[in-house]
Design brief:
Structural class: alpha/beta
CATH class: Alpha Beta
Strand order of the largest sheet: 7-6-5-4-3-2-1-9-8
Oligomer: single chain
CATH architecture: Alpha-Beta Barrel
Mean pLDDT: 88
Helix content: 40-55%
Number of strands: 9
CATH topology: TIM Barrel
Shape: globular
Distance between the termini: 59 Å
Low-confidence stretches: 1-10
């Protein structure tokens, strides 16, 4: 098995950011403040999530289109198989292409009922590789997919997950973003196993802020991510101490990214939770500095 090689950490580190579509005017204001704060860091792209069962389809589409129209950022839309026929999903894909969107995160998705087993739509795409093939038949999208260093909760094994990842790449995926993992050794082992299995596309670690540690633990429980004891211990007694939680969260994320970078990872995807400060601070630690944002062309 080829070992991942350590590299010069001063090489350019590339980042991407994930947001979710806002539900209220107040949440929309917070989202756009975050987008404007992070825009000068010139990420490779920013993605917008898609609710379980496609529940945020219209809000996702509107947010992606606004990012495309009003910022210098490259927006990426999430898309799932759940709860829609092929005809409906294909209409969404064509709508993104017509709106100028050229990148899609293709996911199987979760059922609207929390914890319910996956049930494909009888007239829909039956799996993520099928969805990817459908996307690529419609237009020349860049297709991004998910990966699970700690095993998807419904998978039988890591090896099965890697085999599925390989099928996604064979169907047309160009890179993978991982579920968040706090044990960096698991990221490294997953990358080595994927490379040994013939998966050559970039595998980008997903980085989750832990400021709201109770919320992080709930998300980890739903997606099968483990919480190391050392991380749990960091937050003991801090339920009512937000300033200290922010400092610890920045430290944890920066340490994780620096260690992964020393082992050859040069791309990182930040789950921002629509908050900019922590992500901005970590990117600063990584050597990224704000650049002038191109001015929008004046109307003729």
């Amino acid at each position: 098995m080829a070992k991942t090689q350590k590299k010069d950490v001063n090489e350019r580190t590339r980042v991407s950011f994930e947001f979710f579509p806002p539900k209220t005017p107040e949440m929309e204001e917070t989202l756009w403040k975050s987008i404007r704060r992070l825009e000068p860091l010139q990420p490779e792209f920013v993605s917008v999530t898609y609710g379980a069962g496609g529940s945020t389809r219209e809000r996702t589409h509107a947010t992606v289109k606004r990012i495309h129209d009003e910022t210098s950022l490259e927006p990426v839309a999430h898309l799932t198989c759940v709860g829609a026929s092929r005809v409906e999903v294909d209409d969404v894909i064509r709508g993104y292409w017509d709106a100028g969107i050229r990148h899609i995160v293709a996911l199987r998705g979760d059922m609207p009922e929390l914890g319910a087993p996956y049930q494909p739509h009888p007239e829909g795409y039956q799996s993520t590789p099928e969805l990817i093939e459908g996307i690529c038949k419609i237009a020349d999208f860049d297709v991004i997919v998910s990966a699970y260093p700690e095993k998807h909760p419904e998978s039988v094994s890591i090896d099965a997950d890697i085999e599925l990842l390989k099928r996604k790449v064979d169907a047309g995926a160009t890179r993978a973003i991982t579920q968040f993992v706090f044990d960096t050794d698991k990221h490294i082992r997953f990358l080595e196993k994927a490379r040994a299995a013939g998966v050559e596309v970039p595998i980008v670690p997903g980085i989750m802020p832990t400021t709201n540690f109770k919320g992080t633990k709930r998300m980890a429980g739903r997606c099968g991510a483990s919480i190391p004891k050392w991380l749990d211990d960091y937050y003991i007694g801090l339920d009512d101490d937000l300033p200290t939680r922010k400092l610890i969260a920045a430290y944890v994320a920066a340490e994780q990214v620096n260690r992964l970078r020393s082992y050859g990872f040069d791309r990182f995807h930040f789950y921002t939770l629509n908050q900019a400060d922590l992500t901005f601070a970590i990117c600063h630690v990584l050597g990224l500095r704000p650049q002038p944002v191109p001015a929008e062309p004046e109307a003729v």
